What we know:
two-stranded parallel sheet; 3 helices
Amino acid sequence: PEMDGIELLTKIRADDELKDLPVIVITVSSRGQEEVENIKRLGIEDYLVKTEYSMKMVIEKVKGTLARLSA
């Protein structure tokens, strides 16, 4: 890839048309708590490590976030 997810999220937040786009980070690698907090400060809805959840749980978390945002 030309950029990682954090770079993409940074570009999204810097773009006036996309800056309010809700983002859920779903990753395969866990990061240190400090790095996760830095990512959260970029304005994400949730941060999920796939290995910590079943696919069903990931889908339910995404559905819950979407329901909360559309309420």
